[in-house]
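Quiz preparation item.
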């Protein structure tokens, strides 16, 4: 084998270097390495990501609705207490 294969620990770029000349013959970045997936794999990843984001949105939306209802109940309770306190 007349070449070195080195992987950068920081950016994970793979370098293929000629032993004799020390020249870089090829460099492959992480994004290039990841793009070797098939279209179906990429599509499935995006579908899973979409489902995850959709579920998170739904959960946060429900939390906000519950928060609104809770605040409304607290407001009504405080209003009722104020009315009782102002009656002499």
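Solution:
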């Amino acid at each position: 084998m007349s070449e070195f294969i080195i992987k950068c620990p920081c950016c994970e770029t793979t370098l293929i270097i000629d032993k004799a000349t020390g020249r870089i013959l090829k460099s492959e970045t992480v994004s290039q390495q990841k793009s070797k997936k098939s279209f179906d794999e990429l599509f499935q990843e995006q579908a899973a990501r979409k489902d995850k984001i959709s579920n998170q949105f739904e959960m946060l939306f429900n939390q906000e609705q519950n928060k609104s209802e809770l605040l409304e109940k607290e407001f009504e309770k405080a209003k009722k207490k104020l009315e009782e306190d102002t009656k002499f």
